[in-house]
Amino acid sequence: MSEANSITETLELHCPAKLNLFLHVVGRRHDGYHLLQSVFQLIDWCDTLTLKPIPESEIRRIDPIPGVAPEQDLVVRAAQLLKDFAKVDKGVEISLTKAIPMGAGLGGGSSDAASTLIGLNHLWNLGLDIPTLSQLGLKLGADVPFFIFGHNAFVEGVGEKIQEIALEIQDFVVIFPNQGLATAQIFQDPHLTRDHAPITIDRFLASPRSFQSNDCQAVAMQKCPEVKQALDWIHKVLPNSAPCMSGSGSSVFAALDSKTDTAKLENLLQNLPKGWIGRIVRGLNKNPAYNLISSD
Question: Quick check: pTM over 0.70?
Answer without folding.
Answer: yes
